[in-house]
Amino acid sequence: MARSKFLPDNFTLALVATVAVASLLPAQGVAARGFEGLTTAAIALLFFLHGARLSREAVIAGATHWRLHIVVVLATFVLFPLLGLALRPVLLPLVTPELYQGVMYLCVLPATVQSAIAFTAMARGNIPAAVCSASASTMLGVFVTPVLVNLLVVEHGGTGGPSLGAIGRIMLQLMLPFVVGHLLRRWIGEWVKQRAKTLKLVDQGSILLVVYTAFSAAVVEGLWRQIPLPALAGLVLVCCVILAGSLGGTMLAARRLGFSKEDEITIVFCGSKKSLASGVPMAKVLFAAPAVGAIVLPLMLFHQIQLMVCAVLAQRYARRADVAPAVTATPAERAAAPEAAAAAVSPHEEHPALAPERR
Q1: Could you tell me which of 100, 135, 187, 284 has the fewest CB atoms within 10 Å of its CB?
Q2: Distance between CA 84 and CA 103 in Å, rounded?
């Protein structure tokens, strides 16, 4: 029996429950380190499985899809800062000047990698392009973000510079499992493709783990104690407006530029994310210690909101009927599109009330 259109799906309920559990029972100390390790392992397994399922043609098409990557980079490092600057007169009265400085800081951060790719997979988007685009955005952000902070954000910043260790961690935790899985595709690819439900569980499970560990860390750091309730409500509204602008802007750009639905999904989920994992360590380097709390609080809230909203959006994308590649796609992209679609998680039951969107 089909679920009522007014009821949330099971995964959305699981996300809400995860946030509630993290608020009441946040992981601390040894438990927090254990969940961090478990999350890292789940993300590595996710990349390994996707690497095992993707053909060489799909990987090459994803890496060479330069139009898509340019759109994602522009959304991450141009659209976000412009939104922050343009909306400042309207949104600044809702929060303190210190908190709005934190909002501008999140606007110049790179995209998150894990959740962007997991959501792209859940929504049946262009996974190879998502892997390349999100990873490149993060590595580029190591160099671009400090420059943008000095230009647009900092009034009393530090002397931090790029961290080669961050690039090394990205390569080790994300790209290495993907490459290993792809190299083993000849022997295990068919076995993995026959177990699409397992891949779906890894996708969704990794997102739930990211939500729990990130929200636990935010709660332990005093998420609910650092600011008064009215300022917190205003900050939530500011984050929602910034996220809505980025989601709407990336979706509109993808459609106006003639990208396929799979590419649109990748652009939306890679171009609208901001990295908590990169943002917190960089803030500790780029800002004076007393200012770090107010700087990272908007990022922590935005991170949770983007996960919740994008989870619902990914579910909606996943329910669509299959969409053929855009006529403007290159021969390599058209050849790789079936592989990318097959590598995504199995879609949920088609919802009768959610007809596929028309361009």
Answers
A1: 187
A2: 7
Grouping H, G, I as helix, E, B as strand and the rest as coil, residue 157 is strand
Structure confidence at residue 267 (pLDDT): 95
Nearest to 264 by CA among 253, 272, 254: 254
pLDDT along the chain (359 residues), means of 10: 55 80 90 86 78 72 84 95 91 84 92 85 89 80 82 59 53 77 86 74 76 80 73 89 95 95 94 82 71 77 88 88 47 43 37 31
pTM exceeding 0.70: no
Question: Which amino acid, one-letter code, is at 79?
Answer: L
**CATH class (in words) of the domain with range 10-319:** mainly alpha
Partnered with residue 282 across adjacent β-strands are none
Q: How far is 221 from 95, CA to CA, in rounded Å?
A: 20
Query: Which pair of structure tokens corresponds to residue 174?
Result: 């994300």
Helix (H) and strand (E) counts for the chain?
18, 0
**What is residue 64's predicted lDDT score, i.e. its pLDDT?**
81
Amino acid at 191: W
User: Is residue 278 packed enough to be buried (19+ CB in 10 Å), middle (13-18) or exposed (0-12)?
Assistant: buried
For the chain, what are the domain ranges? Answer: 10-319
**Whole-angstrom distance, CA of residue 73 vs CA of residue 79:** 9
